[in-house]
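Hi U.,

Before I forget, here's the chain from the pilot set. I'm dumping it here mostly so it's searchable later in email.
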Amino acid sequence: MDREWNDSQPIYRQLRDRVVAMILDGVLKEGDPLPSVRNVAAEYRVNPLTVLKGYQQLVDDGLVETRRGLGMFINVGARNLLLQGERQKFLGEEWPRISATIQRLGLKAEELLNGAKRRRKSDADTD
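Structure:
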């Protein structure tokens, strides 16, 4: 996880979003434990209650379960649940702006695909 926090939203929310990204990216898989609240608080120099609040949002969202005495674990189906929600969010919030930009610039599907292919190739070359 990134050690930098920004001022645009509360730290507990940023922490929650980072765990979500790790699940979507496959870094955290179903059944994996979350790092302990104490460890995260110490490593990122935040209040343990802040970490707990971020983790509790994950529990409330049905992505994580608490196992008494063992910790918190990624639920089965968490990634699929996230993908569904993130896709809807993208299509509802981001895609209209992107689509309008594509139309405004007069870009064709072929140009977009070629640009994406070039980007993936240059990213692969730098790895």
